[in-house]
Amino acid sequence: MNRLIVLTLVTALAVFVAIPATAGFDDGLAAINHSDYATVMKEMRPLAEQGDAASQYYLGFAYERIQGVAQDYKQAEHWYTKAAKQGYVDAQRRLGNLYANGRGIVLDYVQALYWYTRAAEQGDAGAQSNLGFMYENGLGRVPDYKLALHWYGKAAEQGDADSQNNLGFMYEIGRGVAQDFNLAVGWYRRAAEQGNAEAQKNLAVMYELGRGVAQDYKQAALWYGRSAEQGNADAQGNLGNYYRIGMGVEKDLVEAERLLTAASRNGNHWAAEKLKTLLDDKTGSNRD
Q1: Rounded distance between C-alpha atoms, residue 130 and residue 128, angstroms
Q2: For the residues of 189-219, what is the DSSP string, one character each?
Q3: pTM higher than 0.90
Q4: How far is CA 141 from each of CA 71, 128, 147, 153, 220, rounded to the nearest angstrom?
Q5: Longest dimension (CA), the chain
Q6: Using an 8 Å Cβ cutoff, are 73 and 104 in contact?
Q7: CA-CA distances (angstroms) from residue 236 to 7, 84, 100, 256?
Q8: What's the pLDDT score for residue 16?
Q9: Count of alpha carbons within 13 angstroms of residue 51, beta-carbon side
Q10: Are 202 and 165 in contact (CB under 8 A)?
């Protein structure tokens, strides 16, 4: 089973307790909500230079997100680092993101691990998820599936859908833990119900194969459909084939062609083969 694995890039702005009671900070924060990063820079810089961690974080965020010549990842790294060293958790996570993705700076998994760990230990779910991914895939160190499970579990319990899906996958294949289809289905379902497209596809596969649940092609079609609507190529291909042969749904060659075409355009080579078969049958080229 293929699994889409990406480092989580958490962009949600933090809700924090200590807010500097200044008009400049309030104006800068309001500008963040309108993606007016030039104003953010203007209002946050004086406070950041005075050592305020929240202002340092938002100044770094503005440098990272502003478009055009003003975008400066080195400045983002600079200000995130200042805030991160003061324990500002969002800065720690975003600094980890910069290092993990080599975004405008030298790729450095060791530094990414360090800052994700600092944030994860403060309970940040995004950092915990990213840390689990790095341990699972051996980025910056040798793989450690036990630690991957640990950090995915921490994030999953906080409702992080990517971690829930990743836990489901590890239980499904028995990676670092005893294989358990029931637990795999449970984690896939929690992520799928949050709208995670990869988990929806994975849950559909479990229904299709009867792993951890009774085999149920209608349920498989349901979850393939939800995933396919979000553009998941595997789900589009599998559901398209269901419509092609009438499995779990009423046979519908028009819908089959639509889904298989979408999957093919999204890089699903298996779906492209099924689409060719469908079109050949449609034109009669496969007939004697």
Answers
A1: 6
A2: HHHHTTT-HHHHHHHHHHHHHTSSS---HHH
A3: no
A4: 31, 16, 12, 20, 38
A5: 82
A6: yes
A7: 24, 42, 31, 9
A8: 41
A9: 2
A10: yes
